[in-house]
């Protein structure tokens, strides 16, 4: 009887196993199917993310952070469909393929589509304004094991990714663009220095409330050991900034000097958007055309000594020999009280255009007022073998615009503002007067900026992009105040304003006037406050540098100001005090938003 009971129990166990085992196998197979589906879904997402982001990043590399986006060969647009055989969408698809997904892949079980456009919003993402978007959908229909016994529907894990180019306001105060191999000629006897972004060569103070970016990752420089991207060569410097970011292993070093930073500089950042020229891709500000000629005998303009200023109307200004009218190439010198305007209110309908061939000098004690407008300094005679000065301000001279200071400081302008373009007579689009064309004079590259004697008083404001009088072709350059010609650097730029890499690397540009890559801004003080107050953006291309001069203790350049240049060089007693302007320029950044 016991033996019979045991046989019965064994029989029941076999029945239970026979019933449960298929269920266990199906559950196991279903779990494997779901797990495999989850894995493939993650893989699809990785491929879609990589493809979408690579497609927009390819556009960013070609047009530059400041470029315009229009559907075409460089900026591909299409409805959701197959990958093109060339262009940025093709490049994006290559990244998808490298991550295991392509149209018809996995023996025909994969689907991979890509869409792109310049519409203001990406599909299904209505609340994020964009300038350009790409959207990728990757899907894979999986072979099923036993899960098909539960559901006849095939498992098809899919992923969607959307990458965009967005216009983001430029927040930093100092963008120092020189990379490790970029060199410049120091103005204070240090010779050629390479890979330097910041040189303090006196007893200097720098306040940059928007932060500092340095693009050099150089480990050595100046021919001395342990000198890196930020360098304090002699004297001392105090830097007040919420952050200082350096590319790679760049660092701050001192030579016979002391340095103080309110926030310790940080390095280790990759060569990304924060170190790119934010103006790259905008091209250069268009030159004015159709201006009347204003030959200036002996290059001397005498303004009023009292009462209303002498009005200097729009046009081309150049020095000539009396009676002959032959261009001399010498600078134009202004004495007394003058205003660049047509005498109307508002001047020139809200925006004037003036071109100065040979540079402009304001004499001692003069007062020169710039109405809102575009001012081109087209060439200047070399000085002692170096570059000529585009704009030189005399001792105790006043240079101003129509926006008054408030409490001795620059505030946002309500007019169209000014842009000062420093170049030579070959600037694209510049219409040369016959006297200049026939002169045989070269009018070589003008040194950018504002060179001055003792105690200049300067108050100027950059372009106001929201003002209706600003010409539409200049709106992308707001709020630039001073623009250094991109041809005035040892690095070659294309006509669209991005670095030329057609030679396989960054191509070289041979300058006719060595040292003309320098922009100079002279500081001063008055009544214990900064005597040079600027509002907007100072721009110099990568490979250039900006020198802030301060002769007397307390000489300061100040204002709501952004500086974009290759390197910053502080000298003597110069101080720099810059805060972000209320209307900073914007630049394109690439990001995934879905």
Report on the biggest sheet. Answer: 32 strands, parallel
User: Terminal Cα separation, in Å?
Assistant: 72 Å
- Tell me the helix content: 10-25%
Query: Helices and strands: which structural class?
Result: mainly beta
* Strand elements, count: 41
Shape: elongated
Low-confidence stretches: 221-227
Oligomer: single chain
Mean pLDDT: 88
Q: Strand percentage, roughly?
A: 35-45%
Number of helices: 4
The figure for the number of domains is 2
Write the layout of secondary structure elements.
Blueprint: H1 2-63, E1 78-81, H2 87-98, H3 105-108, E2 110-117, E3 132-140, E4 158-169, E5 174-176, E6 183-185, E7 192-194, E8 198-208, E9 212-214, E10 230-232, E11 235-240, E12 244-247, E13 252-254, E14 257-261, E15 266-269, E16 293-297, E17 300-302, E18 310-312, E19 315-320, E20 332-335, E21 337-340, E22 352-358, E23 360-362, E24 367-370, E25 373-380, E26 388-389, E27 391-393, E28 398-401, E29 418-423, H4 434-437, E30 446-452, E31 457-461, E32 480-484, E33 518-522, E34 525-526, E35 529-530, E36 532-539, E37 545-549, E38 556-565, E39 568-572, E40 575-579, E41 586-592
Parallel strand pairs: 5-9, 5-38, 8-10, 8-11, 8-39, 8-40, 9-12, 10-13, 11-14, 12-15, 16-19, 17-20, 18-21, 19-22, 20-23, 21-24, 22-25, 23-27, 24-28, 25-29, 26-30, 27-30, 28-31, 29-32, 30-33, 31-36, 32-36, 33-37, 36-38, 37-39, 38-40
Antiparallel strand pairs: 1-2, 2-3, 3-4, 4-41, 6-7, 34-35
Helix pairs in contact: 1-2
């Amino acid at each position: 009887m016991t033996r019979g009971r045991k046989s019965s129990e064994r029989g029941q166990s076999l029945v239970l196993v026979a019933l449960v085992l298929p269920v266990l196998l199906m559950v196991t197979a279903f779990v494997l199917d779901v797990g495999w589906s989850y894995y493939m879904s993650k893989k699809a997402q990785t491929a879609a993310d990589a493809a979408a982001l690579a497609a927009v990043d390819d556009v960013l590399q070609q047009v530059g952070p400041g470029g315009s986006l229009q559907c075409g060969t460089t900026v591909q647009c299409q409805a959701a469909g197959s990958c093109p055989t060339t262009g940025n969408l093709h490049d994006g698809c290559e990244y998808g393929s490298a991550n295991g997904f392509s149209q018809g892949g996995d023996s025909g079980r994969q689907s991979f589509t890509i869409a792109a456009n310049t519409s203001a919003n990406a599909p299904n993402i209505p609340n994020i304004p964009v300038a350009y978007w790409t959207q990728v959908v990757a899907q894979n229909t999986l072979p099923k094991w036993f899960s098909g016994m539960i559901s006849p529907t095939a498992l098809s894990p899919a992923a969607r990714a959307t990458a965009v180019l967005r216009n983001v306001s430029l927040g930093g105060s100092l963008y120092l663009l020189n990379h490790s191999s970029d060199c410049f000629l120091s103005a204070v006897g240090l010779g050629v220095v390479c890979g330097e972004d910041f040189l303090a060569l006196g007893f200097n103070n720098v306040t940059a409330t928007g932060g500092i970016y340095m693009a050099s990752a150089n480990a050595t420089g100046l021919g001395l050991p342990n000198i890196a991207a930020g360098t304090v060569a002699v004297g001392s410097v105090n830097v007040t900034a919420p952050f200082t970011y350096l590319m790679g292993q760049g660092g701050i070093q001192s030579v016979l000097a002391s340095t103080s930073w309110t926030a310790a500089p940080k390095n280790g950042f990759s060569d990304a958007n924060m170190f790119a020229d934010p103006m790259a891709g905008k091209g250069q500000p268009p030159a004015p055309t159709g201006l009347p000629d204003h030959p200036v005998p002996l290059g001397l303009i005498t303004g009023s000594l009292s009462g209303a200023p002498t009005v200097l109307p729009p046009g081309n200004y150049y020095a000539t020999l009396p009676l002959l009218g032959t261009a001399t190439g010498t600078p134009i010198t202004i004495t007394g009280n003058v205003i660049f305007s047509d005498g109307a209110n508002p001047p020139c309908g809200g925006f004037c255009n003036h071109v100065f061939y040979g540079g402009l000098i304001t004499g001692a004690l003069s007062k020169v007022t710039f109405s809102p407008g575009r001012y081109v300094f087209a060439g200047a005679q070399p000085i002692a073998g170096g570059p000529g000065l585009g704009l030189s301000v005399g001792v105790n001279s006043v240079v101003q615009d129509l926006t008054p200071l408030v409490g001795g400081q620059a505030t946002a302008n309500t007019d169209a503002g000014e842009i000062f373009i420093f170049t030579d007579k070959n600037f694209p689009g510049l219409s040369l007067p016959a006297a200049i064309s026939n002169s045989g004079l070269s009018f070589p590259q003008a040194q950018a900026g504002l060179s001055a004697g003792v105690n200049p008083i300067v108050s100027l404001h950059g372009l106001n992009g929201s003002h209706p009088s600003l010409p539409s072709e200049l709106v992308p350059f707001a709020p630039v105040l001073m623009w250094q010609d991109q041809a005035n650097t040892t690095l070659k730029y294309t006509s669209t304003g991005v670095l030329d890499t057609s030679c396989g690397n960054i191509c070289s540009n041979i300058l006719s006037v060595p040292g003309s890559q320098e922009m100079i801004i002279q500081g001063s003080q008055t009544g214990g406050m900064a005597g040079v107050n600027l509002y907007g953006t100072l721009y110099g291309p990568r490979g250039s540098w900006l020198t802030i001069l301060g002769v007397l203790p307390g000489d300061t350049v100040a204002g709501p100001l952004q500086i974009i240049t290759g390197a910053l060089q502080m000298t003597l007693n110069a101080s720099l005090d810059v805060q972000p302007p209320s209307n900073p320029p914007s630049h394109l950044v690439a990001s995934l938003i879905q």
